Amino acid sequence: MIKYTMFARNCLLGSLAIGLSPMHVFAEEPSPKPMEEAAAEVVAAIPQIDALADKRMREMSDLLGKLKSFRFSVEIVNDNVEPDGQKIQIGRRSRVEVKRPNGLRVESQGDRGWNKMSVFDGKHFLLHDRGEKVYSIIDAPGTLDEFFQYLFEKYGTSPPLVDFLLDDVHGALTEGADSGALLGDAFVAEKACDHLVFSNDDLEWQIWIEKGPNPLPRKFVITYKDVDVRPQYMAVFREWDTNASLDDARFATTAPADATSVPFERFVDRRSEGDGADQEGDDHGGAKHEEADHDGADHGDADHDDADHGAETEN
Predict the structure, then answer these.
(1) What is the pLDDT of residue 35?
(2) Phi, psi (5° rounding) for residue 28?
(3) Maximum C-alpha span of the chain
(4) Residue 57: which of 165, 159, 160, 168 has the closest Cα?
(5) Exposure of 118 by Cβ count < 10 A (0-12 exposed, 13-18 middle, 19+ buried)?
(6) Could you tell me whether strands 69-81 and 288-289 are parallel, antiparallel, or unpaired per DSSP bridges?
(7) DSSP strand E in the chain: where?
(8) Alpha carbons 282 and 277: distance in angstroms, whole number
(9) How buried is residue 290: exposed, middle or buried, by Cβ count under 10 Å (0-12/13-18/19+)?
(10) How far lies 162's CA from each of 3, 37, 101, 249, 252, in Å?
(11) Predicted model pTM
(12) Burial of 287 (0-12, 13-18, 19+ CB in 10 A)
């Protein structure tokens, strides 16, 4: 399943409900179904994913999984659904820097005063709200995959786009699909791409993968079919540097001198305040995602010059 980027909100809402109203439900065991009906249900449950779409996803996954030190920028536009059903777009530009197995730095700026930085070094995780001048540092385990799982299980946070940072991107982005297809040729930011679509009962997600020897993700769109107004989440990837020179100092989880320490739960709990901007997470049709941690980093704030490191950088 796409357990972080797209499905985590259902798990989070479910866990909150259990916490508020614990109960056990003992359902009556259903009568056995006729063999023909049961067989038809098994066949219907098998994902119908086109072979060409699956091949392209595996090629992208293999490339991303092999990258050791890389960075990219991403422009995110998210539909924030108001109580009356009106959709308000919230945008930000972000920058992600990754040094496997356990280095992550994210800086982001956007609408409504969004200005955040987060850093993971394999032992600790720093989340810094530069606008409000507050921060939190927590202990965090191991590799990037282990860290994302830890955040999800302990705090219910679900960083969007995190699926693209996992070791198995293909598994993360296809396991929950009932269907998938290669739609055809497309262009994103002047890059020739293959346009793919996957779906299940609740969600539809599209991905544009660059053609040629570097099958990098160029665009990603989620549509929430289970919400009446069908809100969307869109991310456009730019400035991929697949061989970035990233110093270990970039991933130092040092407390900022100009900020006040606050409990980490403050960043998580504020997602439920419903302030429209959703200061600690975006509202995908009423579903909260903790974007402060990993949705990307602002290119302008990063302390580096792409021309200096000599790695392959493109726009």
Answers:
(1) 56
(2) -70, 135
(3) 69
(4) 168
(5) buried
(6) unpaired
(7) 48-49, 69-81, 87-99, 103-110, 114-120, 124-129, 134-139, 179-188, 191-199, 203-210, 217-224, 232-241, 260-261, 282-283, 288-289
(8) 7
(9) buried
(10) 10, 39, 14, 22, 20
(11) 0.74
(12) buried
CB-based contact 287:281 (threshold 8 Å): no
Q: Are 76 and 265 in contact (CB under 8 A)?
A: no
116 by DSSP, 3-state: which? strand
Q: Among positive and negative, which fits the CA dihedral 117, 119, 124, 125? A: positive
Question: What pLDDT does 113 receive?
Answer: 79
Domains and CATH numbers, the chain: 48-302 (2.50.20.10)
Burial class (CB in 10 A: 0-12, 13-18, 19+), 208: buried
Question: Under 8 Å CB-to-CB from 295, ≥6 apart: which residues?
Answer: 74, 76, 92, 94, 106, 108, 159, 160, 161
Q: Which residue has the tokens 């990098």?
A: 216
Burial of 266 (0-12, 13-18, 19+ CB in 10 A): middle
- Cα separation, 129 vs 134, whole angstroms: 5
**How would you write the pLDDT of the chain (315 residues) with one tens digit per residue?**
344 444 333 322 222 221 222 222 223 344 555 655 544 444 444 569 999 999 999 999 999 999 999 999 999 999 999 999 899 999 999 999 999 999 999 999 989 878 999 999 999 999 999 999 999 999 998 999 999 999 989 988 766 689 999 999 999 999 889 999 999 999 999 999 999 999 999 999 999 999 999 999 999 999 999 998 999 999 999 999 999 999 999 999 999 999 999 999 988 765 444 333 233 333 333 333 333 333 333 333 434 334 333 334 455
Structure-token pair, residue 170: 């293909």
At 57, list the tokens: 């996803």
d(CA 27, CA 30): 9
